[in-house]
Amino acid sequence: MQAKFSFTRREMLRRASLFAGAAALGRQAVKAAASSGVPARRLEHLSAGANVCRWFRYVRRDTPEHFSNYISEAETALMARLGLKHVRLCIHPNVLMDQSTGAVLEERAVYLEAALRRFHRAGLLVVLDLHNEDRAAELNPDWQNAFTKFWTALATRLRGFDPDLTIFEIVNEPVFARREEQWNALNARLAAAIRQSAPQHTIMTTGPNWGGIDGLKKLDLLPDKNIVYSFHCYDPFPFTHQGATWSSEDVKPLRNVPYPSSPEAVAPLLAALEDKPGARRMLERYGDERWDKGRLAARFKEGIEWGTRHGVPLYCGEFGVFPNYARPEHRANWFRDFGQVLAEHRIGWAVWGWDEGFGLNRRHVNGQPQVDPVVARALGLTELLLQHRSSELGRTAWTRGVRGHSGA
């Protein structure tokens, strides 16, 4: 009994120390944001958002109907009533850019402009995220030249849109593994091209190595003050990506991984992994690491300290949990803790995604848009979009849709 009491007391002291440090860091982060050149009203719009993943990225139906009406006027209004302040609109360069010349594709640009106006009429800020996922292209000097010309043309075209409701994000998750200085050079070049064309708009950028917290530490600060620095976070990976078929062989077999984690919490799952030693070791390590709100806060501390040191505002542009094999109560725990840590540090966020798995995962049931109630509640969003879930048919259809979803 004495050992148990001693352990509990130490754990309480550890958590108290973490939360006290987090509070101090939160105050510092607020001061850093205030001292930047980004207007406060824009940072307020970044406080809560969602990624719109499928309108201009991996388009399922390349038709005028899709580009005109993928998200309706009524749906943007519902997004705002739900409590979202902005969307991160994911745009694959292939959809909008001539890959050889960098020219903006005129017909698609018209649709993009209409989408911007639709979101703006609902009071939603739009982060235009150039969501490149072609790793060979990002290292190709010819593509880099074309992409620079593209950003010059696109920023020129869109500079008439309200700067308080339109942010230009240079590119999604640059990797540049072991070539980080190449990203710093290209990042500066792209930012300069955007700024020359759109002097009033806020620019968003991120570090190399998939745009994570660790990448911020390798990022050269831009001389421009009107910049938001973004990072993505899907920690802890064994929980957020459990069962994801496109992920590592060790993650694929994981099921019902709990959050928070402890050796005791994961112990009942180990026997089923006897013939998968890599997955078993990953799960054991996850339990030993005791992931909880304090551990998440400690992870964020690494990025927050970087932002505070440089006096720049931070933004978490992606986070979420693959829903197919995670228990609802564990997802709720994680989203609640994740959202609270971001709020305590005044870090804006966009969950992945509005229209894909891992987050709100909007689906249409009986013609009505509905979102994952677990995620909406855990993030503190209102439940106007959940009102149709009173019908058993609606609940069943939405749940079946989530189980069948492939994720982000």
Low-confidence residue ranges? 1-8, 10-23, 384-408
Beta content: 5-15%
Main sheet specs:
8 strands, parallel, barrel
Structural class: alpha/beta
Mean of the pLDDT scores?
89
CATH H-level homologous superfamily name of the largest domain:
Glycosidases
Explain the overall architecture.
- The chain has 18 helices and ten strands.
- With 408 residues, it is an alpha/beta fold.
- The chain folds into two domains: 322 residues, TIM Barrel, CATH 3.20.20.80; 48 residues, no CATH class.
- The strands form two sheets. Strands 1-2-3-4-5-6-7-8 form an eight-stranded parallel β-barrel, surrounded by four helices. A two-stranded antiparallel sheet has the order 9-10.
- Helix 13 runs antiparallel to helix 14.
List the helices and strands and how they pair.
Blueprint: H1 2-35, H2 40-45, E1 49-56, H3 64-69, H4 73-82, E2 86-91, H5 93-96, H6 106-121, E3 125-130, H7 135-138, H8 141-158, E4 166-169, H9 180-197, E5 202-206, H10 208-211, H11 213-216, E6 227-232, H12 237-240, H13 263-270, H14 277-289, H15 293-310, E7 314-318, H16 328-344, E8 348-351, E9 363-365, E10 368-370, H17 373-378, H18 392-403
Parallel strand pairs: 1-2, 1-8, 2-3, 3-4, 4-5, 5-6, 6-7, 7-8
Antiparallel strand pairs: 9-10
What's the short version?
The protein has 408 residues and is an alpha/beta fold.
Task: Please supply descriptive tags for the structure shown above.
408 residues; two-stranded antiparallel sheet; 10 strands; 50% helix; globular
